[in-house]
Design a protein that fits this description.
single chain, about 350 residues, alpha/beta, CBS-domain, Spore Coat Polysaccharide Biosynthesis Protein SpsA, Chain A, 2 domains, three-stranded mixed sheet, 12 helices, globular
C-alpha cells in the first residue's frame, strides 16, 4: 500500500469523533487506526465503535480515542498479517515495526478486500411509494418518483435489491400517485419480486398508509420511503431493535454542514467568548427508514392521514420504547432533490 493510501487509514490521537467518522467514510473500509505523533499504533476505531460511543451518550466533538479499541490487532510481517486476516472477519491488518509504528496495511491478496458477509434476516419490507414527489418536479409530472431512474434502474428497484441482499423477499408497497405506471413496470418482472400492493384512495401522508396493512403483517418489518437508499448494515439495525425491545427504531444519519465563515460567540458587553474558524456542524437526520413492530399498525386509525414521525411521537407518549439507530452520512443516499440524483448515480456506479 502506498504512503498516500496509508494516510487514509491513519489519524492522530487529537482527532475528534466527527473527524474520525469523516476519515472512515473516505477510506470506505469502516476502520481507522489511531497513532501517536511518531506513528506508533495506539488504537483503532470502527463505525460500530462510534455508534456504541454515541448511543452511550458520547458527543461528536469528543476525542476519537475515547471510543476506540486501545488493544488493536497488528502483525509484524506480511505473512503474519495474512494469517490474522483470514482467521476472523478482519477488514484490514496493520503491519508494525519493532517499535510499534505502522509501516503498511494488509487488506487481502493483491489489495482485494473481503466482501462483507451479509446475514440473512428475511423480514417483510413495506415501502411507501404513494407520494407525488414534488421536490423532483418537473420529472414527477411524467414519472412517479419510484420509477425515476438512477443509472440502469429506478430508485425503488435499487432499494428492493438492497433488501434482497439480506434475504428480504416479501415486499408490501403502498401506492397512490400514478400507481398504474408503477404496477405496470413490475408486471414485467414476475418471479423476481414477491409484491403485495396497497392502494391509497386519498393521500395518507408518510405513515397513514400503514393502516391498509392491518392484519397483513404479524412480525417485525422494515418501513421505508421510496426516495432513500441505505447501505449500512441492516442486520446490525435489526439486532439493535430486538435487543432493546423497541417498537420503533428510527434510522438516522449524521449530516455534516461546513459553515464557510468564522463563527463568533459573544458574551456580556460584546466580549468575544469564543471563535471558531469555518466550523463543521453535525446534525442527526431522519432518513425515512424504520424498523417497526406490528402492534404499531394496530394502534393506528383507518384512513387517517398522518406522517410517520407523528406515529413515533404517539407510541412514545404511550410509554412504548422508540429509539434511534445512528449511521454515517456516507451510508445514506437521498434522491428526493434534483441535485442529489447525480450524486447517487455516481456513488452506485462510480462513473
Amino acid at each position: 500500500m502506498d504512503s498516500n493510501e496509508l494516510r487514509n487509514f491513519i489519524g492522530g490521537s487529537n482527532l475528534t469523533v466527527l473527524e474520525a467518522m469523516r476519515k472512515i467514510d473516505n477510506n470506505a473500509s469502516g476502520i481507522l487506526f489511531i497513532v501517536e505523533e511518531s506513528d506508533r499504533l495506539i488504537g483503532c476505531i470502527t463505525d460500530g465503535d462510534i455508534r456504541r460511543y454515541l448511543l452511550a451518550g458520547g458527543k461528536m466533538d469528543g476525542m476519537a480515542i475515547e471510543a476506540a479499541n486501545v488493544n488493536p490487532k497488528s502483525a509484524k510481517s506480511n505473512e503474519e498479517a495474512r494469517l490474522l486476516y483470514h482467521e476472523k472477519d478482519y477488514v484490514v491488518i496493520p503491519i508494525v515495526s519493532s517499535d510499534g509504528r505502522i509501516i503498511d496495511l494488509y487488506s487481502g491478496e493483491n489489495g482485494r478486500r473481503k466482501k462483507k458477509h451479509r446475514h440473512t434476516i428475511n423480514i417483510p419490507v413495506v415501502i411507501n411509494a404513494g407520494g407525488r414527489g414534488t421536490r423532483l418536479d418537473p420529472f414527477t409530472r411524467v414519472l412517479p418518483k419510484p420509477l425515476i431512474p438512477v443509472g440502469d434502474l429506478p430508485i425503488i428497484e435499487h432499494i428492493m435489491k438492497e433488501y434482497q441482499s439480506y434475504g428480504c423477499g416479501d415486499f408490501h408497497i403502498i401506492v397512490n400517485y400514478k400507481r398504474d405506471l408503477i404496477k405496470s413496470y413490475f408486471s414485467e418482472s414476475v418471479g423476481r419480486y414477491h409484491i403485495s400492493w396497497y392502494d391509497e384512495k386519498e393521500p395518507l401522508g408518510t405513515g397513514g398508509g400503514l393502516s391498509l396493512l392491518r392484519g397483513k403483517i404479524k412480525e417485525t418489518f422494515f418501513f421505508a420511503n421510496c426516495d432513500v437508499l441505505m447501505t449500512a448494515n441492516y442486520n446490525s439495525m435489526l439486532n439493535f431493535h430486538r435487543e432493546n425491545g423497541n417498537v420503533i427504531t428510527m434510522v438516522c444519519a449524521y449530516k455534516n454542514f461546513a459553515i464557510p465563515y468564522g463563527v463568533i460567540e459573544m458574551g456580556m458587553n460584546g466580549v468575544i467568548s469564543e471563535m471558531k474558524e469555518k466550523p463543521l456542524l453535525s446534525f442527526l437526520i431522519n432518513t425515512g427508514i424504520y424498523i417497526v413492530e406490528p402492534e404499531v399498525i394496530s394502534d393506528m386509525e383507518d384512513g387517517v392521514a398522518v406522517d410517520f414521525p407523528d406515529i413515533v411521537e404517539m407510541e412514545k407518549n404511550k410509554g412504548k420504547r422508540v429509539a434511534v439507530f445512528p449511521v454515517s452520512e456516507n451510508d445514506w443516499m437521498d434522491m428526493g432533490q434534483l441535485n442529489e440524483l447525480e450524486k447517487m448515480r455516481l456513488k452506485l456506479y462510480g462513473e
